[in-house]
Structure formats: C-alpha cells, structure tokens
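Submission sheet (multi-component)
Chains listed below:
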Amino acid sequence: MLPPAPQEIDRRIYEVVAQVPRGRVATYGEIARRAGLPRGARRVGRALRTLAGHPPIPWHRVVNAEGRIALATGSDGAQRQRRLLITEGIAFSGDRIDLRRFGWDRSLDELLWCPGDR
DNA sequence: GGGTTGACCTGTG
DNA sequence: ACACAGGCCAACC
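Outcome: structure written.
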C-alpha cells in the first residue's frame, strides 16, 4: 500500500474527531490511533490548527493526555474551548478534565481499576 | 539543504 | 509533582 497523502491523513483525522460524542473528550493520541497513526498525536494537533475552528468539526473535544487544554493558557482559543466543553456538561477540576469520567475511550482505568463494580 | 518548532505521547528516574 | 529523552513529521525559518 502506498502511504496515504497528507491531505488524506488530515481527512481521516477530521472524520475521527467528528465521531467524538458530545459530552466526551478524546486525547490527541487517541484520535491518532483511531485514524491509523499510532504515534501521530502531533499530526493531529497540526490538522486541528489548520482547521482553525471553522468547519463543523468538534475540535474542542480534543485535549491532551493529561486532560488539559493544549492551547496556550489564557489564549482566546483556550477560553473558547473551555466554554464549549462546559456547555456540553464537561466538568473541570482546576484546569483539568477527569478522563475517567469524560474520556471517549475509558477502557484502561475501567478495566484495570474496577472500584466497587461487580 | 539543515535546524527549529510545535493544539503531542510514552517511558524513566 | 518535575525533568529529561526519544519518537513523530509537516511547516517554517
């Protein structure tokens, strides 16, 4: 197989981002994995930056692996993102989102930790 | 052509 | 909690 053209890669990234459900967030790495780019987290960031928030793509549902907004603290973009997420019912503890509660793919902690469940 | 820079991640100490 | 290293790779000096 020929490697997909950069354009095609971006398209797949947008497709995956569009699938993140309302009220949930996904990490850059997660988006990359689902788009077929195992270590392409950085690529996802570029794709979203290029997007500049315009198309009907829920870019705000993508945060970094710590559950923090990746944009510079206090920047317009960061504030806009935070507001959008809160509007969707996502809660911040300080500047972080608890990915065990709001993460799209919560399998890891869920499977390994299993608090009082069963 | 090379060096640096990111809306990043994972592992190690 | 912090620092550092290695990986990643298109875009930009």
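Remark: Strands of chain A lie at 26-27, 62-63, 92-93, 96-97.
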